[in-house]
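Appendix B. One record, verbatim.
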Amino acid sequence: QVQLVESGGGLVQAGDSLRLSCAASGRTFSTFIMGWFRQAPGKEREFVTSISYRGSFTRYGDSVKGRFTISRDNAKNTVYLQMNSLKPEDTAVYYCAADSAIYSSGAGSRDASAYDYWGQGTQVTVSS
């Protein structure tokens, strides 16, 4: 079991930056692929980014590539999402997720169903 708690959401203007954090407790953090997803009202949950066990590999959704950066600190049991050049279309509830599967390489799956544990979400609102 692992518990995930997101923080750092808020209301910002277009072009601003924001950093989300996700603190994990429970099982050894470094054994999880970590991901961020988001869900806007009336839309399906969307893959944002994921990161491998030690942070060597990352992958990004096309809509955030070049603007968002995922990182993790296994010593602090925390994964981060740095969001730059925010746009109104980035407005959503952002969820942190953990995948306990064992991958031989890479940054895990883009599929939300692959993730076993989820945080409660944090709202990010970007005004134009």
